[in-house]
Amino acid sequence: MFFDVARVADWLENTSWAAGIRQSLWLYPALEIVHIVGIVMLVGAAFMFDLRLLGFSRNLPLWGMSRHLLPWSRRGLWLIIPSGILLFMTNAKSLSTDPTFWLKIVLIIVAAVNVFIFHRFVFKTDSGGQTELSPVSKVLAVVSIVVWIGVIACGRLLAY
Ligand code: HEM
Question: How far is the CA of 148 from the centre of ligand 1 (A)?
């Protein structure tokens, strides 16, 4: 690894922020709630759009759904990432050696690459009239659903 994970984790866990969260009765559960609300926005909106790509609710315009759902999905990251980092800092030493945490991070990167491929090569946002997409979009929709379920499963297992 190009930086000493154990030393960075030790530093993070000993910051006054991490100590403050550990000593507080309500801060950690409050961060978990923020994390979960962000997940509902990110993964909930992504799932609904993926199900439309898979052919459910064909009467609903693909373009309109993307304009409504995808910005809310992105906005979920504004809650997930800060709360996730603060949750991580609180137990950085044990989480940084937990394979479930690193599997979660790898799956998040796979999900991000999947979104990039979809928007860069498949979903031409200027073609407002497009009603259906190439079969590739269905494969990317299935990858999205499976990978986000994997991230959620890893997240839940982290809490044990
Ligand atoms: C981007 C998408 C993400 C999703 C969908 C996600 C999902 C989840 C889920 C479902 C949980 C379990 C919550 C519970 O039931 O208590 C969780 C917990 C957790 N997540 Fe995330 N997470 C994401 C990103 C992150 C990031 C970027 C970090 C840190 C860098 C992070 C750190 C954590 C930690 C430390 C916990 C354990 C909290 C606990 O002890 O309950 N997550 N995550």
Answer: 12
Convert 29-65 to b/e letters by CB count within 10 Å (16 or more is b): eebeebbeebbebbbebbbbbbebbeeeeeeeebbeb
Cβ partners under 8 Å of residue 89, min gap 6: 12, 13, 15, 17, 18, 21
Give the pLDDT confidence of 23-45 residue by residue, as tens digits. 999 999 999 999 999 999 999 99
Per-residue pLDDT tens for 33-91? Answer: 999 999 999 999 999 999 999 999 989 999 899 999 999 999 999 999 999 999 999 99
Q: What is the pLDDT of residues 123-139, one digit of tens each?
A: 865 555 555 678 899 99
Q: Which residues surround ligand 1 with Cβ inside 6 Å?
A: 32, 35-36, 39, 43, 80-81, 84-85, 87-88, 95, 108, 151-152, 155-156, 158-159
Cα of 138 to ligand 1 centre, how many Å?
27
- Say if residues 154 and 100 touch (Cβ distance below 8 Å): yes
Atom 19 of ligand 1, residue of closest alpha carbon: 155
